[in-house]
């Protein structure tokens, strides 16, 4: 790990007990202990990730449970796609527990099944590496496998160039860092806000666009507060400028922790500051809703780090999923599989953006009944210009 690499955020996803923690732990340990801080909650929300590592178990019965209707394998892959995770890597784990152990037949079966549903979701399987491993024994993670002589290695086709290799580490090394937009105004959705003794209020989050610098005056939306940045840290080191893709903590003056929360968005008060929206228009696909969706339906939307109930105020038009052509105006109901343009109204203040101006703040998943019922992208927003920002009151 000698040379400095470009920062890439990986999210580890998969069904319960597919071996996510064991695999990640083993990988970190084998790489000479990437220090524990670098691993900060590796299973954090997919909204933060550039690449998804989908862990699928090859053990008897476990793969089937993960991809069944109630399993989380499809759900996680779908969420990753909706949240804009363009690159996905599939780890076929627990090869030591297939029957017989390290079975080529089982690996091929899993690859076929997972390729099928990734394609349905929208991924191109030729760009997805499939790697057989055992997170428990460490097989084929760092060094090429001896126990699976039939495995010829993984190959992927990408616009930036094709790559191939044998081990999981080689796949991770082949990841292309996404293009980051530095020249756009700052957008930084907050993931958490901490109060740190002797320091003060420290919001934490990933910069989605723009640059964050000490001395900058930030505007927080929908909190409607402005505050100055005192200092910025990433992995416990001070920074003079933080760029898109960086997960940072920054110290701000004169704002009480209770006035900011996860889901608020920070931007530069002087350059297109973020503002909350009274409503927005989105193109949605209804995924697995058991009934009929009508105007008035109010699921919880997960958009960047925000988690807010929004009402389907108006079903504007039903669309053809593949071509985007209009099929019907003002449909009365939407069912699973339908695509539509809808007007959504958040039931409490929320900051989102159109997908075309700030992609990471313009896509969402709607959740209800403990599952993702719809996914969507925001086409336009109605900004709420009703009330002016308040200068943060000084807290002694």
Automatic annotation (TrEMBL):
Gene3D superfamilies: P-loop containing nucleotide triphosphate hydrolases, Translation factors. SUPFAM superfamilies: EF-Tu/eEF-1alpha/eIF2-gamma C-terminal domain, P-loop containing nucleoside triphosphate hydrolases, Translation proteins. InterPro entries: EFTu-like_2, GTP-eEF1A_C, P-loop_NTPase, T_Tr_GTP-bd_dom, TRAFAC_GTPase_members, Transl_B-barrel_sf, Transl_elong_EF1A/Init_IF2_C. GO terms for cellular component: cytoplasm. Residues 279-379 form the GTP-eEF1A C-terminal domain. It holds the Pfam family GTP-eEF1A_C. Transmembrane segments: none annotated. This is Elongation factor 1-alpha isoform 6. It comes from Scophthalmus maximus.
């Amino acid at each position: 790990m000698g040379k400095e690499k470009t920062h890439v955020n990986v999210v580890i996803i998969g069904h319960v007990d597919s071996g996510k923690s064991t695999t990640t732990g083993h990988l970190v340990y084998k790489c000479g202990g990437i220090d524990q801080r670098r691993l900060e909650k590796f299973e954090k929300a997919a909204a933060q990730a550039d690449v998804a590592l989908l862990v699928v178990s090859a053990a008897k019965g476990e793969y089937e449970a993960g991809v069944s209707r109630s399993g989380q394998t499809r759900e996680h892959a779908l969420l990753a796609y909706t949240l804009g995770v363009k690159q996905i890597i599939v780890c076929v784990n627990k090869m030591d527990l297939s029957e017989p152990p390290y079975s080529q037949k089982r690996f091929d079966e899993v690859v076929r099944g997972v390729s099928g549903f990734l394609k349905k979701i929208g991924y191109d399987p030729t760009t997805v590496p499939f790697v057989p491993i055992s997170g428990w024994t460490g097989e084929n993670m760092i060094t090429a496998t001896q126990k699976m002589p039939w495995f010829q290695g993984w190959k992927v086709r990408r616009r930036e160039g094709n790559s191939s290799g044998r081990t999981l580490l080689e796949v991770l090394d082949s990841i292309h860092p996404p293009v980051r937009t530095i020249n756009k105004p700052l957008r930084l959705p907050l993931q958490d806000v901490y109060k740190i003794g002797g320091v003060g209020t420290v919001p934490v989050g990933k910069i989605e666009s723009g640059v964050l610098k000490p001395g900058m005056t930030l505007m927080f939306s929908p909190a409607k507060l402005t505050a100055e940045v005192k200092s910025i840290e990433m992995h416990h080191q001070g920074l003079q400028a933080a760029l898109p893709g960086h997960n940072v903590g920054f110290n701000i003056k004169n704002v009480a922790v209770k006035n900011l929360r996860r889901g608020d968005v920070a931007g530069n008060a002087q350059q297109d500051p973020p503002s909350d929206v009274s409503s927005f228009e989105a193109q949605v696909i209804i995924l697995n809703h058991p009934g009929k969706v009508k105007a008035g339906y109010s699921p919880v939307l997960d958009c960047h780090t925000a988690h807010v109930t929004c009402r389907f105020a108006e079903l504007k038009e039903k669309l053809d999923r593949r071509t985007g052509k209009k099929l019907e105006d003002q449909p009365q109901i939407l069912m699973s599989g339908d695509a539509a343009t809808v007007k959504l109204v958040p039931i409490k203040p929320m900051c989102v953006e159109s997908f075309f101006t700030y992609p990471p703040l313009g896509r969402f998943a709607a959740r209800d009944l403990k599952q993702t019922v719809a996914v969507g992208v925001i086409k336009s927003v109605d900004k709420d210009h009703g009330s002016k920002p308040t200068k943060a009151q000084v807290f002694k």
